[in-house]
Amino acid sequence: xxxxxxxxxxxxxxxxxxxxxxxxxxxxxxxxxxxxxxxxxxxxxxxxxxxxxxxxxxxxxxxxxxxxxxxxxxxxxxxxxxxxxxxxxxxxxxxxxxxxxxxxxxxxxxxxxxxxxxxxxxxxxxxxxxxxxxxxxxxxxxxxxxxxxxxxxxxxxxxxxxxxxxxxxxxxxxxxxxxxxxxxxxxxxxxxxxxxxxxxxxxxxxxxxxxxxxxxxxxxxxxxxxxxxxxx
Length: 232
Fold this sequence. Notes:
- This protein has helices at 33-43, 61-67, 83-88, 162-173, 186-191, 215-231, and strands at 2-7, 27-28, 31-32, 48-53, 70-73, 96-100, 103-105, 117-135, 141-160, 199-203, 209-211.
- The protein is α/β, with parallel strands linked by helices.
- It has a single domain, classed as Alpha-Beta Complex (Spore Coat Polysaccharide Biosynthesis Protein SpsA, Chain A), CATH 3.90.550.
- The strands form three sheets. A seven-stranded mixed beta sheet has the order 5-4-1-6-9-8-10.
- It starts with a strand and ends with a helix.
- 38% of the residues are buried.
C-alpha cells in the first residue's frame, strides 16, 4: 500500500503566510500539515509515500531526508488545478491512498485494512459550495454534488483500489480529451464517472479531518485544538 500527497498548490488565500512557505507546510498548532500526514502514514506502516510538489518545491526536501518520501515535481502548478498533479503520478494511483496536502489530520484515520475504494468523510452542517457525497443505504457513493447544505462531504482523504484506480488512470492517460481540463480538479474525473466506479464511504467523527483554506480557517482550527488541550 502506498500514499500520494498532493501538495503543489500556491495557497493564495493563506497569504501572507504562504509568501514564505507552501500551503501544505503551514504549521497548525506547531506542526506542518503534510509532515503530520507523512508521520501518521508511517505510524500505520505505509512507507511508500509520494508527495507531488510545485510551489516552493525545495521546501519539501527535508521530508526526503527525515522520512524517506519521494518528491514528484508538477511544473504546471501555477497554471492548472490539481488534475495535473494526479496526471503526473497516475500510474501509481491503483492501490493508493490520496491525501490533499492542506488537510489537517486531527486524528490518525488511516486504515490499512481497507480494500475497496473509499472516501473518508466528516459530517458538516451549513456548508457552502462543498462537494457532498450522495450515498445509498448500503454506504455506496452514488454521486457527488457541489452544493450548499448539510451532509457528509469530501474531506481530502481517499483510497483507490486497483480496479477503480486503473479506470481513473486510463481517463488521465487521455487528459487532453477532458473538456477544460486545465481548470479541473482530479476529483472531477471521479465525479464525472461515478457510474463506472464502486466507491464506499467511511464516516468519521466531525473533527477528525479539517480543511484549511484561509487564515480564518487556520485560526478557528487552532482555537479548537488549544481549547481541547485546556479542557484536559
